[in-house]
Amino acid sequence: MTPAATDLSIATLILQATIPVQLVMLLLVVLSISSWTVIFKKLLSIREINRQTDSFEEAFWSGGELMALYERTSQGVYGQGLSRIFEAGMREFLKLRQQSKADPSLMLEGARRAMRATSQREFDSLEHGLPFLATVGSVSPYIGLFGTVWGIMHAFTGLANVQQATLASVAPGIAEALVATAIGLFAAIPAVVAYNRYATDIDRLSNRFETFMEEFSNILHRQH
Length: 224
What we know:
Elements: H1 3-6, H2 10-15, H3 19-60, H4 66-74, H5 82-97, H6 104-126, H7 130-158, H8 167-221
């Protein structure tokens, strides 16, 4: 048995794999790199949104004037997220209040609609990239499995030209095929974990935003 035949290192298995299996591995590596890029970007953006939300809520519940807070949010002092929802609701409320015959209930409903529309835009931005993580998490194992099946088929097809089949003759082909499955799992597992974590974080933010909109609507109700 030659040393080359017993060399089952990962690098050797990848380099000696058939072209279809190598293409599968390359696709999985690209998906993995792309998903990790999304994971880190989403981690930073959600962390920043939480920080800005905490900062805005502290200012909002500090007992200051709403108009002063509105001016600061209009200048972008508190970034995005909850401050933009407040700004949209306050702007719509003030615009309707300037109308001489504005119905108080219509003023409040207009402010709520503005806040909900802004909230939806904020969550659309936050959820950007999550479908990609879900796709990577669901399809990567199957892509890896396709590479494995192809590699095993190739390994057993090669036995047709061998007079005496041994474990040493079939092991490299099976091993290189299983590498595709391993890479598929390596791409899928972080994507699934990140998707579940970020979906939970965004759901918590949604609850915070919904609670704030109700509380702010009650405050506006007392303003007219």
